[in-house]
Design goal:
The chain is an alpha/beta fold. The protein has one domain: PAC-like subunit (Rossmann fold), CATH 3.40.50. It has six helices and eleven strands. Helix 2 packs across helix 4. The protein starts with a strand and ends in a 7-residue tail after the last helix. About 35% of the residues are buried.
């Protein structure tokens, strides 16, 4: 079961909604959090989840932190945003979250729902591309106009990003999933998040905002990867590490 608390009712007219939960490389988490921070989105509702099923303690004193998911709004941009810190792997809990998001979209008379996330880089790719899939065929040409490549052939979009589109289709709500390519799912991917944000700015009609912090995070990531690569090479060659 989930509990929802609505703090206020934003006065928006047929808004778009952006929904994302942490995924591979935390692409979705980085992207949606950056929009919330940079555009100063306002909280209007929360979903309280009955997990995790434990408490933490420090020196014998228990701390209780109940998971929650949050809905924000941007009045000038006519936009709703959903995010959270926990992406459930249990199918039942995942369905519950997705249904709550779609129900909120229906309640707020959302025009179109967007989810964002990561996709493994194609072997033939020379750059990190942005791909898309939709739950209504008439949206294909629409997202193509923003430079998004369509996912070709047959495949699966697993987890929150895919399931949300399926449930939205069941409820006759137009939705699209925008996926940025990544190289390594185990390392945060700020560049991919930035690539998705560059597309979202146009799709959602948002005023461009400064993304220099993501450039800085990408530089840190590259430095870390170079250091790891050097360490692996040193270990494989048998050369002893340097002494400072």
């Amino acid at each position: 079961m989930l509990g929802i608390k609505i703090h206020n009712h934003p006065k928006l007219e047929s808004p778009n909604m952006l929904a994302a939960l942490p995924d591979m490389g935390n692409v979705a988490g980085i992207g949606v959090s950056y929009i919330i921070k940079k555009l100063n989105a306002k909280l209007f509702a929360e979903i309280y989840a009955y997990w995790p099923p434990y408490v933490s303690y420090t020196n014998g004193v228990v701390d209780y932190n109940q998971s929650s998911y949050k809905f924000y709004y941007l009045e000038n941009e006519n936009l709703l945003i959903f995010n959270g810190e926990f992406n459930p792997t249990d199918p039942r809990r995942l369905y519950e979250i997705c249904y709550e998001v779609v129900q909120m979209a229906e309640r707020m008379k959302v025009k179109r729902l967007y989810s964002i996330g990561a996709a493994f880089r194609q072997e033939s790719s020379t750059k990190l591309n942005v791909f898309g899939a939709v739950n209504n065929e008439h949206l294909l040409e629409y997202i193509r106009n923003f430079g998004i490549s369509i996912l070709e052939g047959k495949g699966e979009i697993i987890g929150f990003n895919g399931l949300l589109l399926g449930i939205a289709k069941e409820r006759h709500l137009d939705a699209a999933c925008i996926l940025g390519e990544i190289d390594n799912p185990n390392i945060v991917q700020p560049k991919t998040a930035q690539n998705i944000l560059a597309v979202l700015v146009n799709i959602l009609g948002i005023q461009p905002f400064n993304m220099s912090e993501l450039d800085e995070e990408e530089e840190k990531k590259k430095l870390m990867e170079d250091q790891m690569s050097h360490l692996e090479h040193t270990t494989e060659s048998g050369d002893p590490p340097g002494i400072a």
